[in-house]
Design goal:
heterodimer, A: about 200 residues, mainly alpha, 6 helices, about 80% helix, elongated, B: about 160 residues, Rna Polymerase Sigma Factor, Chain: A, Arc Repressor Mutant, subunit A, 8 helices, about 70% helix, about 0% strand, globular
Protein backbone atom coordinates (compact mmCIF):
# COMPACT_ATOMS: atom_id res chain seq x y z
CA UNK A 1 0.00 0.00 0.00
CA UNK A 2 1.71 3.20 -1.15
CA UNK A 3 0.85 6.80 -0.31
CA UNK A 4 -1.44 7.20 -3.33
CA UNK A 5 -3.48 4.19 -2.26
CA UNK A 6 -3.57 5.44 1.34
CA UNK A 7 -4.78 8.79 -0.01
CA UNK A 8 -7.60 7.12 -1.98
CA UNK A 9 -8.81 5.10 1.04
CA UNK A 10 -8.55 8.21 3.25
CA UNK A 11 -10.66 10.30 0.87
CA UNK A 12 -13.26 7.56 0.67
CA UNK A 13 -13.38 7.40 4.48
CA UNK A 14 -13.73 11.19 4.69
CA UNK A 15 -16.73 11.03 2.33
CA UNK A 16 -18.33 8.29 4.42
CA UNK A 17 -17.74 10.19 7.65
CA UNK A 18 -19.41 13.23 6.11
CA UNK A 19 -22.55 11.14 5.63
CA UNK A 20 -22.45 9.84 9.20
CA UNK A 21 -22.94 12.99 11.23
CA UNK A 22 -23.71 11.80 14.73
CA UNK A 23 -23.15 14.68 17.11
CA UNK A 24 -26.08 16.58 18.49
CA UNK A 25 -25.95 20.08 19.96
CA UNK A 26 -26.74 18.64 23.37
CA UNK A 27 -23.92 16.10 23.21
CA UNK A 28 -21.38 18.72 22.11
CA UNK A 29 -22.32 21.06 24.94
CA UNK A 30 -22.13 18.15 27.39
CA UNK A 31 -18.55 17.53 26.28
CA UNK A 32 -17.65 21.13 27.03
CA UNK A 33 -18.55 20.67 30.69
CA UNK A 34 -15.70 20.17 33.15
CA UNK A 35 -17.45 17.29 34.91
CA UNK A 36 -17.68 15.35 31.67
CA UNK A 37 -13.90 15.00 31.49
CA UNK A 38 -12.69 11.62 32.61
CA UNK A 39 -9.18 10.59 31.79
CA UNK A 40 -7.11 13.68 32.51
CA UNK A 41 -8.36 14.13 36.02
CA UNK A 42 -7.89 10.49 36.97
CA UNK A 43 -4.11 10.61 36.65
CA UNK A 44 -3.56 13.48 38.99
CA UNK A 45 -6.22 12.07 41.31
CA UNK A 46 -4.22 8.90 41.99
CA UNK A 47 -0.94 10.82 42.18
CA UNK A 48 -2.52 13.27 44.63
CA UNK A 49 -3.83 10.44 46.86
CA UNK A 50 -0.31 8.95 46.88
CA UNK A 51 1.17 12.33 47.77
CA UNK A 52 -1.31 12.83 50.63
CA UNK A 53 -0.39 9.40 52.07
CA UNK A 54 3.31 10.35 51.88
CA UNK A 55 2.69 13.74 53.55
CA UNK A 56 0.65 12.15 56.37
CA UNK A 57 3.46 9.66 57.01
CA UNK A 58 6.05 12.45 56.97
CA UNK A 59 3.96 14.47 59.41
CA UNK A 60 3.64 11.45 61.74
CA UNK A 61 7.43 11.01 61.71
CA UNK A 62 8.00 14.73 62.29
CA UNK A 63 5.71 14.75 65.32
CA UNK A 64 7.49 11.73 66.78
CA UNK A 65 11.05 12.58 65.76
CA UNK A 66 12.12 13.13 69.38
CA UNK A 67 11.69 9.36 69.97
CA UNK A 68 14.63 8.66 67.65
CA UNK A 69 17.34 8.73 70.30
CA UNK A 70 20.48 7.66 68.44
CA UNK A 71 22.31 9.45 65.61
CA UNK A 72 21.71 6.64 63.10
CA UNK A 73 17.98 6.43 63.81
CA UNK A 74 17.77 10.22 63.56
CA UNK A 75 19.64 10.10 60.20
CA UNK A 76 17.25 7.41 58.91
CA UNK A 77 14.29 9.49 60.16
CA UNK A 78 15.42 12.68 58.43
CA UNK A 79 16.17 10.80 55.19
CA UNK A 80 12.72 9.13 55.26
CA UNK A 81 10.91 12.43 55.91
CA UNK A 82 12.85 14.21 53.15
CA UNK A 83 12.06 11.48 50.64
CA UNK A 84 8.38 11.36 51.58
CA UNK A 85 8.10 15.10 51.00
CA UNK A 86 10.33 15.66 47.97
CA UNK A 87 9.43 12.74 45.64
CA UNK A 88 5.66 13.35 45.41
CA UNK A 89 6.15 17.12 45.08
CA UNK A 90 8.47 16.70 42.08
CA UNK A 91 6.18 14.12 40.44
CA UNK A 92 3.09 16.33 40.88
CA UNK A 93 4.97 19.34 39.55
CA UNK A 94 6.01 17.47 36.41
CA UNK A 95 2.48 16.15 35.84
CA UNK A 96 1.18 19.68 36.32
CA UNK A 97 3.70 20.92 33.75
CA UNK A 98 2.26 18.55 31.14
CA UNK A 99 -1.28 19.66 31.93
CA UNK A 100 -0.34 23.35 31.81
CA UNK A 101 1.13 23.10 28.31
CA UNK A 102 -0.25 25.98 26.30
CA UNK A 103 -2.03 24.06 23.59
CA UNK A 104 -3.57 27.22 22.16
CA UNK A 105 -0.40 29.20 21.55
CA UNK A 106 2.13 26.40 21.11
CA UNK A 107 2.70 24.89 17.72
CA UNK A 108 2.58 21.13 17.26
CA UNK A 109 6.38 21.04 17.22
CA UNK A 110 6.65 23.02 20.48
CA UNK A 111 4.08 20.76 22.14
CA UNK A 112 5.93 17.60 21.12
CA UNK A 113 9.28 19.00 22.34
CA UNK A 114 7.82 20.21 25.64
CA UNK A 115 5.81 17.01 26.20
CA UNK A 116 8.72 14.70 25.35
CA UNK A 117 11.15 16.60 27.60
CA UNK A 118 8.75 16.60 30.56
CA UNK A 119 7.89 12.95 30.01
CA UNK A 120 11.60 12.09 30.03
CA UNK A 121 12.02 13.97 33.31
CA UNK A 122 8.99 12.17 34.72
CA UNK A 123 10.38 8.79 33.68
CA UNK A 124 13.77 9.63 35.15
CA UNK A 125 12.06 10.73 38.34
CA UNK A 126 10.05 7.51 38.49
CA UNK A 127 13.23 5.50 37.98
CA UNK A 128 15.08 7.40 40.68
CA UNK A 129 11.97 6.99 42.85
CA UNK A 130 12.08 3.20 42.43
CA UNK A 131 15.73 3.06 43.55
CA UNK A 132 15.13 5.44 46.42
CA UNK A 133 12.12 3.51 47.62
CA UNK A 134 14.37 0.50 48.14
CA UNK A 135 16.63 2.66 50.29
CA UNK A 136 13.46 3.87 51.97
CA UNK A 137 12.57 0.27 52.88
CA UNK A 138 15.88 0.02 54.75
CA UNK A 139 15.50 3.33 56.54
CA UNK A 140 11.81 3.42 57.41
CA UNK A 141 11.64 -0.03 58.97
CA UNK A 142 13.95 0.80 61.95
CA UNK A 143 12.40 4.29 62.25
CA UNK A 144 8.82 3.01 62.53
CA UNK A 145 9.92 0.13 64.75
CA UNK A 146 11.51 2.60 67.16
CA UNK A 147 8.58 5.04 67.14
CA UNK A 148 5.79 2.44 67.36
CA UNK A 149 7.40 -0.34 69.46
CA UNK A 150 10.41 1.41 70.99
CA UNK A 151 12.70 -1.27 69.49
CA UNK A 152 16.10 -0.48 67.93
CA UNK A 153 16.31 -2.88 64.98
CA UNK A 154 19.97 -2.04 64.41
CA UNK A 155 20.75 -3.88 67.63
CA UNK A 156 18.88 -6.99 66.44
CA UNK A 157 21.16 -8.61 63.85
CA UNK A 158 18.87 -11.56 63.04
CA UNK A 159 16.29 -9.48 61.19
CA UNK A 160 18.90 -7.91 58.92
CA UNK A 161 20.40 -11.29 58.06
CA UNK A 162 17.20 -12.30 56.26
CA UNK A 163 15.91 -8.86 55.28
CA UNK A 164 19.04 -7.66 53.45
CA UNK A 165 19.63 -10.71 51.16
CA UNK A 166 15.94 -10.89 50.19
CA UNK A 167 15.91 -7.17 49.40
CA UNK A 168 19.14 -7.36 47.36
CA UNK A 169 17.79 -10.17 45.15
CA UNK A 170 14.49 -8.35 44.70
CA UNK A 171 16.29 -5.07 43.95
CA UNK A 172 18.54 -6.76 41.36
CA UNK A 173 15.65 -8.36 39.45
CA UNK A 174 13.39 -5.33 39.67
CA UNK A 175 15.98 -2.79 38.54
CA UNK A 176 17.01 -4.93 35.56
CA UNK A 177 13.40 -5.07 34.41
CA UNK A 178 12.82 -1.38 35.17
CA UNK A 179 15.94 -0.30 33.26
CA UNK A 180 14.86 -2.19 30.12
CA UNK A 181 11.39 -0.60 30.12
CA UNK A 182 12.85 2.84 30.77
CA UNK A 183 15.46 2.54 28.03
CA UNK A 184 12.92 1.50 25.39
CA UNK A 185 10.61 4.43 26.10
CA UNK A 186 13.30 7.10 26.39
CA UNK A 187 15.15 5.92 23.28
CA UNK A 188 12.15 6.58 21.05
CA UNK A 189 11.52 9.91 22.82
CA UNK A 190 15.12 11.00 22.34
CA UNK A 191 14.97 10.17 18.64
CA UNK A 192 12.00 12.51 18.16
CA UNK A 193 13.72 15.30 20.12
CA UNK A 194 16.89 14.89 18.07
CA UNK A 195 14.86 15.03 14.87
CA UNK A 196 13.03 18.19 15.93
CA UNK A 197 16.02 20.03 17.31
CA UNK A 198 18.27 19.55 14.28
CA UNK B 1 -25.42 33.89 16.20
CA UNK B 2 -24.61 33.06 19.84
CA UNK B 3 -21.34 31.54 21.04
CA UNK B 4 -22.83 28.11 21.76
CA UNK B 5 -24.65 28.01 18.46
CA UNK B 6 -21.62 28.95 16.36
CA UNK B 7 -19.38 26.56 18.33
CA UNK B 8 -21.69 23.56 17.91
CA UNK B 9 -22.05 24.35 14.22
CA UNK B 10 -18.26 24.29 13.78
CA UNK B 11 -17.93 21.03 15.72
CA UNK B 12 -20.72 19.41 13.71
CA UNK B 13 -19.07 20.49 10.47
CA UNK B 14 -15.72 19.06 11.58
CA UNK B 15 -16.71 16.00 13.60
CA UNK B 16 -15.06 13.71 11.05
CA UNK B 17 -11.78 15.56 11.44
CA UNK B 18 -11.78 15.09 15.23
CA UNK B 19 -12.72 11.44 14.76
CA UNK B 20 -9.75 10.85 12.44
CA UNK B 21 -7.27 12.52 14.81
CA UNK B 22 -8.55 10.47 17.75
CA UNK B 23 -8.25 7.28 15.72
CA UNK B 24 -4.62 7.75 14.78
CA UNK B 25 -3.51 8.83 18.26
CA UNK B 26 -5.26 6.14 20.33
CA UNK B 27 -5.21 2.38 20.40
CA UNK B 28 -8.57 1.47 21.88
CA UNK B 29 -12.17 2.62 21.96
CA UNK B 30 -12.16 4.05 25.47
CA UNK B 31 -9.01 6.14 24.88
CA UNK B 32 -10.52 7.37 21.63
CA UNK B 33 -13.72 8.44 23.35
CA UNK B 34 -11.77 10.20 26.11
CA UNK B 35 -9.58 12.00 23.60
CA UNK B 36 -12.62 13.05 21.56
CA UNK B 37 -14.22 14.63 24.62
CA UNK B 38 -10.98 16.28 25.66
CA UNK B 39 -10.50 17.82 22.21
CA UNK B 40 -14.05 19.24 22.18
CA UNK B 41 -13.50 20.56 25.72
CA UNK B 42 -10.19 22.23 24.77
CA UNK B 43 -11.72 23.72 21.61
CA UNK B 44 -14.54 25.18 23.69
CA UNK B 45 -12.09 26.56 26.25
CA UNK B 46 -10.01 28.27 23.59
CA UNK B 47 -12.96 29.33 21.44
CA UNK B 48 -12.93 32.87 22.87
CA UNK B 49 -9.28 33.32 22.03
CA UNK B 50 -9.92 32.30 18.43
CA UNK B 51 -10.58 35.57 16.66
CA UNK B 52 -10.44 34.61 13.03
CA UNK B 53 -6.71 35.41 13.02
CA UNK B 54 -6.12 32.09 11.31
CA UNK B 55 -8.36 29.77 9.32
CA UNK B 56 -10.80 27.84 11.48
CA UNK B 57 -9.32 24.53 10.27
CA UNK B 58 -5.78 25.67 11.23
CA UNK B 59 -7.00 26.55 14.74
CA UNK B 60 -8.85 23.23 15.07
CA UNK B 61 -5.96 21.09 13.85
CA UNK B 62 -3.55 22.87 16.19
CA UNK B 63 -5.71 22.44 19.29
CA UNK B 64 -6.72 18.87 18.42
CA UNK B 65 -3.18 17.69 17.63
CA UNK B 66 -1.71 19.42 20.71
CA UNK B 67 -4.42 17.86 22.89
CA UNK B 68 -3.69 14.43 21.42
CA UNK B 69 -0.01 14.77 22.38
CA UNK B 70 -0.90 15.81 25.93
CA UNK B 71 -3.14 12.75 26.31
CA UNK B 72 -0.50 10.24 25.23
CA UNK B 73 0.87 9.74 28.71
CA UNK B 74 -2.09 7.66 29.82
CA UNK B 75 -2.72 5.45 26.83
CA UNK B 76 -0.05 2.83 27.55
CA UNK B 77 -1.46 2.14 31.00
CA UNK B 78 -4.83 0.96 29.68
CA UNK B 79 -5.18 -2.77 29.42
CA UNK B 80 -8.73 -3.21 28.16
CA UNK B 81 -7.92 -2.88 24.48
CA UNK B 82 -10.87 -3.35 22.21
CA UNK B 83 -8.85 -3.51 19.02
CA UNK B 84 -8.62 -1.28 16.01
CA UNK B 85 -11.54 -2.92 14.18
CA UNK B 86 -14.03 -1.27 16.47
CA UNK B 87 -12.75 2.24 15.95
CA UNK B 88 -11.92 2.32 12.27
CA UNK B 89 -15.24 3.58 11.07
CA UNK B 90 -18.63 3.93 12.61
CA UNK B 91 -20.67 1.15 11.12
CA UNK B 92 -23.71 1.88 9.01
CA UNK B 93 -26.33 -0.19 7.19
CA UNK B 94 -24.34 -0.06 3.98
CA UNK B 95 -21.25 -1.42 5.64
CA UNK B 96 -18.45 -2.43 3.29
CA UNK B 97 -16.16 -5.11 4.80
CA UNK B 98 -13.63 -4.92 2.00
CA UNK B 99 -13.26 -1.19 2.43
CA UNK B 100 -13.00 -1.67 6.19
CA UNK B 101 -10.06 -4.06 5.66
CA UNK B 102 -8.27 -1.58 3.43
CA UNK B 103 -8.90 1.14 5.98
CA UNK B 104 -7.54 -1.09 8.70
CA UNK B 105 -4.35 -1.50 6.69
CA UNK B 106 -4.08 2.28 6.33
CA UNK B 107 -4.40 2.75 10.08
CA UNK B 108 -1.88 -0.01 10.73
CA UNK B 109 0.64 1.83 8.55
CA UNK B 110 -0.06 5.16 10.28
CA UNK B 111 0.08 3.67 13.79
CA UNK B 112 3.64 2.57 13.15
CA UNK B 113 4.80 6.15 12.61
CA UNK B 114 6.04 8.33 15.48
CA UNK B 115 3.90 11.11 17.02
CA UNK B 116 5.27 13.83 14.75
CA UNK B 117 4.99 11.76 11.58
CA UNK B 118 1.41 10.80 12.44
CA UNK B 119 0.46 14.49 12.58
CA UNK B 120 2.23 15.25 9.31
CA UNK B 121 0.70 12.35 7.39
CA UNK B 122 -2.75 13.25 8.72
CA UNK B 123 -2.44 16.82 7.48
CA UNK B 124 -1.11 15.63 4.13
CA UNK B 125 -3.96 13.13 3.73
CA UNK B 126 -6.41 15.89 4.65
CA UNK B 127 -5.17 17.69 1.57
CA UNK B 128 -3.25 20.46 3.32
CA UNK B 129 -0.55 22.29 1.37
CA UNK B 130 2.99 22.39 2.78
CA UNK B 131 2.49 26.05 3.78
CA UNK B 132 -0.53 25.29 5.94
CA UNK B 133 1.11 22.18 7.42
CA UNK B 134 4.05 24.41 8.34
CA UNK B 135 1.72 26.94 9.98
CA UNK B 136 -0.01 24.26 12.07
CA UNK B 137 3.10 22.33 13.06
CA UNK B 138 5.58 25.17 13.53
CA UNK B 139 8.05 23.52 11.15
CA UNK B 140 9.46 25.34 8.15
CA UNK B 141 7.98 24.57 4.76
CA UNK B 142 11.22 22.97 3.57
CA UNK B 143 11.35 20.87 6.71
CA UNK B 144 7.78 19.70 6.13
CA UNK B 145 8.72 18.66 2.59
CA UNK B 146 11.79 16.76 3.76
CA UNK B 147 9.92 14.94 6.51
CA UNK B 148 7.04 14.01 4.26
CA UNK B 149 9.35 12.48 1.67
CA UNK B 150 10.99 10.52 4.52
CA UNK B 151 7.58 9.25 5.59
CA UNK B 152 6.83 8.21 2.01
CA UNK B 153 10.10 6.27 1.89
CA UNK B 154 9.36 4.69 5.24
CA UNK B 155 5.97 3.50 4.01
CA UNK B 156 7.48 2.21 0.77
CA UNK B 157 10.23 0.26 2.53
CA UNK B 158 7.65 -1.36 4.80
CA UNK B 159 5.64 -2.50 1.80
CA UNK B 160 8.79 -3.95 0.21
CA UNK B 161 9.61 -5.80 3.44
CA UNK B 162 6.14 -7.37 3.40
Amino acid sequence: MDLEEIQTVWSEMTDQLEKQKKLTTELIMKMTQERYRTKFDKITFYETIGAVVCFVMALYLLVNINKLDTWYLMACGIFTIALLLILPVITLRLLGKIQRMNIVKNSFKETIVSYTKTKNQLLLMQRVGIYLSFVLMFTCLPVFSKIMNNKDLFLQGKIWLTYIPVMVIFLFLFTRWGYKCYKNITNSAENILKELET
Amino acid sequence: MGKEESFTRIIKENEGLIFKITTIYTENGQDQKDLYQEIVYQLWKSYDSFRNESKISTWMYRIALNTAIGQLKKSKKHSNKTGIDQVVLRQTESYDTEFENRLKMVYEQIHQLNILEKGLILLLLEGKKYGEIAEITGLSETNVGTRISRIKQKLKSRILKK
